[in-house]
Specification:
By secondary structure, this protein is an alpha/beta fold. It contains 22 helices and 16 strands. A hairpin with a 5-residue loop joins strand 4 and strand 5.
């Protein structure tokens, strides 16, 4: 302790301050400096390093013999010290200076240099305080990584919950529909615009509703707009709203548009291809800029709404026909989701039928059940009206079927297909999985029917289905018929 006090007294003498401090006081301050977490160095006004505490050696990795009495600039030029810039700055400005530096040993340190001035405002001594922030930066980075991981986990949990609830509520046994659901789940986790395409009745509004309810906007409005049902003359005011006196018959206080009503939530623009050309430009501006003007208004309306567009039209053809703007298409088509028709996902037909059967049994207080013999009739039909038509047929069967057991005859009658006769039921002579049984039944039915005719039209009539379905089934079972030779005969 006495030794350290002597070093401090010599340092104070160098700057003319030894008379200000007693030996006891020097011993106290030397001990106090050595207890500090930070590295501390005293420099004169040359500047030379005249004193360092114990942690200076630990933090900077330098021995006092290397630096005491040495000019700071020379030490910096020699590469012994890399963190002297704040002290040099203090000599110029006589004010505090700080910087964040890396030592030659790879530590990150925060240096603060402070001047000690005499009565005339001249520098007597510079005090450097050097804090090792390597661990702090590491902890900060770990904290940021933890936050990033936590955010990622939250997104994954949200997606998992959405995936579970969605798959529980929707029928998706086919590979095609499973891919649609996967993309919808991903769309729900972000805030980009979505464009849903597919034939009428495939369930575009169901997917749109899911994306909203599984997203962070689920507590806000979900507004559906059928663009084909709004007259062109009213479209702008319905979508964007209007101010008082905007036109004859306008409400006294004006009226918010559907975009404003959906603020904070999701707006579904169904049949988006039917938006009038002159309104498309205003919608595009809103999508690009985030604001719009009500009809007759001069004040900007800034709205936070997610847009989901849906259409069964070919927008690329509409773009070629100059009835739909290409730039608007690109704004809407950020996340495209194509929903295939029911005829391309026949694995979903029976599960959907059973789901609708449960719904309408409950509605009409019945107990109708689907027989296995009726299932091929459902699968072989093309369903031009898609899921909407299937639901309609199931409801009709529940109402009209005379018995609780729904047969293929009930299905054909509900669809509206007239058959000249029904083929005798097939006999199963061994156990097999249902999918194989269905395919085997189809194969046998086709061969039985081909024993009566080689005409695709007549085959369709006998089997109670359509010409394209018969053609597809023949290809699936690798059954060839020579229609030309049959005609020549």
């Amino acid at each position: 302790m006495q030794y350290r006090a002597g070093e401090l007294m010599w340092a104070l003498k160098d700057v003319g301050l030894s008379g200000k401090v007693s030996p006891e006081g020097a011993a106290f301050f030397a001990a106090l400096l050595d207890t500090q977490y930070d590295a501390i160095a005293l420099l004169d006004n040359k500047p030379r390093i005249i004193y360092i505490n114990k942690n200076y050696e630990n933090i900077l990795g330098l021995k006092k013999e290397e630096i005491i009495g040495k000019d700071l600039r020379e030490l910096m030029d020699a590469g012994i010290i890399r963190n002297g810039a704040p002290s040099i700055e203090v000599l110029k400005t006589k004010k505090h200076a700080s910087s964040l530096e890396n030592t030659k040993h790879g530590k990150s340190v925060l240096i603060t240099a402070s001047p000690l001035l005499d009565e005339n405002g001249e520098i007597l001594m510079i005090i450097d305080n050097i804090r090792d922030v390597t661990d702090i930066n590491r902890l900060k980075e770990e904290s940021l990584n933890y936050k990033r991981m936590s955010t990622q986990y939250e997104v994954e949990v949200q997606e998992l919950r959405a995936r579970t609830s969605f798959l529980d509520s929707l029928i998706a046994k086919s590979q095609a529909m499973s891919e649609v659901l996967e993309r919808a789940i991903r769309a729900a986790s972000v805030n980009a615009n979505v464009l849903l395409t597919g034939e009428s009745g495939t369930g575009k509004n169901v997917i749109a509703n899911y994306i909203h309810t599984a997203s962070s906007r689920k507590g806000s409005p979900f507004i559906q707009v059928n663009c084909s049902a709004i007259p062109e003359s009213l479209f702008e005011s319905e979508l964007f709203g209007y101010e008082e006196g905007a036109f004859t018959g306008a409400k006294r206080k004006g009226k918010p548009g559907l975009i404003e009503v959906a603020n904070g939530g999701t707006l579904l623009l169904d049949e988006v291809g039917e938006i009038p050309w002159n309104i498309q430009a205003k919608l595009l501006q809103f999508l690009q800029e985030g604001y719009f003007f009500r009809v007759g208004g001069t004040k900007e309306s800034t709205i936070d709404v997610r847009i989901i567009a849906a259409t069964n039209a070919d927008l690329s053809q509409k773009i070629m026909d100059k009835s739909f703007r290409k730039d608007l298409f690109y704004r809407l088509n950020v996340l495209p989701i194509y929903i295939p028709p029911l005829r391309e996902r026949y694995d979903d037909i029976v599960p959907l039928t059973l789901s609708f059967l449960e719904k309408y049994n409950s509605k009409y207080k019945t107990n109708k059940k689907l027989t296995s013999q009726a299932q091929p009739a459902l699968i072989n039909y093309d369903w031009p009206g898609n899921v909407r038509e299937l639901e309609n047929v199931v409801e009709r069967v529940v109402i009209l079927a005379e018995n609780d057991q729904i047969t293929e005859k009930d299905i054909y009658m509900a669809i509206g297909i007239k058959l000249p006769h029904f083929i005798d039921p097939l006999h199963v002579n061994k156990l097999m999985p249902f999918p194989e049984a269905y395919k085997e039944a189809e194969r046998q039915l086709l061969h039985m029917a081909l024993g009566q005719t080689q005409s695709l039209r007549k085959l369709a009539e006998i089997l109670g289905t359509t010409h394209p379905t018969v053609s597809r089934k023949l290809k699936e079972h690798n059954i060839h018929i020579n229609i030309r030779e049959k005609r020549k005969k």
